[in-house]
Fold:
Amino acid sequence: MSEAVIALESVSKTYGSGAATTQAVSDVSMSVARGTWVAIMGPSGHGKSTLLQLIGGLDRPSAGRIVLDGAEIGSLDATKLAAVRGRKIGFVFQFFNLMPYLTALENVEIALWLGGAAKRNGRAMELLEHFGLGDKAHHLPGMLSGGQQQRVAIARALANDPDILLMDEPTGNLDSAAEAELLTLLDGLHQAGKTLLMVTHNPAVAARAERVLQVKDGRIVADTRNGTV
Structure:
């Protein structure tokens, strides 16, 4: 079996205090082998996105340990944690989160800059061309379709060649054609060895993954393998 690139040990996340306490994630233990595509499903408001944010270091656990590629990220200070995220993790969101006053090319280039790699000899343009967006490089996000914006977002996420992609409802704002196009793209990334964790409400999207986690009340209540992968 492949080595675990992500491991959670009794991880919980609590917000608020006293009577206003909310347990978003409760005593979750799991591991993800390198190169695996994992879909995370469950009702809205039951901790799926919080779990993804904890794995990505965007939030810190109230209890437990999160180990990313051999390093416990909960013990890192903000600067070191940001550096780890920049090298090892790419994030893709439902609403794209592109900077509206930057072109597609600049949106990818800023990720390289934040990762300390400047423009890396045309890396940003290479990614846009790879995803069929070379002719849209100088377009602002508002000039692009939803599917095109999501491809720019994925190019940005891949700018520093991370091993792991964390995706929160990446197909949620796409029409059927753009969704199919994005899933084909993700198939290719998976086949290239990327580790993918994707929150989704869509069973057809989850069926493309090789492993499906069901989350309810902040806990993993089922962990199944897709037999077709």
Observations:
- Residues 25 and 132 are 39 Å apart (CA to CA).
- The beta strands are 4-15, 22-33, 37-41, 63-68, 71-72, 89-93, 164-168, 195-199, 211-216, 219-225.
